Structures
1.
Amino acid sequence: MSNTAKLTRIKLKNFTAFSNLNLKLSPGVNVIIGANSTGKTHLLKILYAATAITTGEDREKSFRNKLLGVFNPYKKAMTRLIRRQQGLPKASIIVERGDGAKLRAEIDNQKANVEDVIVTGQDEWRKVEMKTAYIPVKEMLAHAPFLKKISKREIELEKKYIDIINESFEEIYIYIIKKSFLPQLRGPHDDRRKLLLSMLQQAIEGRVEAKDEHFFLRDKGQLEFNLLAEGLRKLALIWLLIQNGTLLSGSVLFWDEPEANLNPNLMGKVVEVILELHRLGVQVFLATHNYVILKEFDLRQKQKDSIRYISLYQDKDNDGRDVIFSSYSDCYSGIDHNAILETFGKLYDSELLRADISTIAKHEEA
């Protein structure tokens, strides 16, 4: 799929953490950084909801209902997604695509019901299918048997308890499990997919298979996933999504904190997999707090790779209110308000100070 059918811009007004955001997106890899509570995960969820309604069972679901499922606000009140401030204004979301399509949602501050959210541009938006996957911070494949049966109501519990369990999990957890169970694509793999699968098999030391709604690592003597390290399970999930065709050219991948529970010596492989997915034609959005991830992108990026570093940060507006601002750079050295690098800089300065104090103390003792 060409860049004309990829996400190009997101505009938010008074939605969750954002008072006013207008962000241009890369057709390749978008690396989102920022301190806690600056809205990184919220950006991923909004864009995921917009892409999900173009494909599969979500094609019959409105953008407003997908937002409801993804954010899961208390008592399903959409007004809870409006940014907390005096007067509680209306909130709006606009997502734009390279072909000119625009998807818009507006939440009225007086109407909490999801059916009162006004959505426009949805029919035009759905003319292009955008296969998508959202990988949350918490790995879910080890819980697949339980959650899949719950979603299909196969467990003998009272309906009210099943509903409570379903409502306790955001949609992203149920849907990634459903996508992981999709059947493997038939036919030979092209060279790019072969390379990706080979890289992942080397990292996880095996191949993945599903049996009786459980996942196993085949080349580890049928090792069940709940005995496999959590970080490796996420890499195994990527392997499954490539095998079953969820991640192909024209797909969109959202990955929240790929570094979570992963040994630092595997982060280079994770970054290389993400870059190879981009080269295959997958648009990627990831949120990270990790310096090694950022530096690996900087070191492994090739000339034709398209990587955008998006920084979200809190500052005062003209009225003295705390609001979320954004900046972006297409090169690592140009990142403004880099909370990750600033933290490592402070640690380095503290280490130098400790070394200086220790040296002074030794001289005084002498």
2.
Amino acid sequence: MPLSHVFDTYVKTAQGRIMHFDVVLDEQDQAKALQYAKEWLTSIGHPDAVVTQENCAFCHSAEAPPELRQQIENQGYGIFKLEGCPK
């Protein structure tokens, strides 16, 4: 299995809520991680959440677990929800 790259991401929604999640992809590309974070936020109804390069930073590389691997294969990235994210 290929190594995936994890970008530790914190965002603040328009309502002031903080969400913490990892963007996981097969390329170590911060611009793509930022793009995918914004795409995911829009898909869950938070297109106005603030996410920047400073709060979407490369963290480490690891083998993605099966559920993230499936997300990456289906959409090019996976989201691992940590704190404050919708279920």
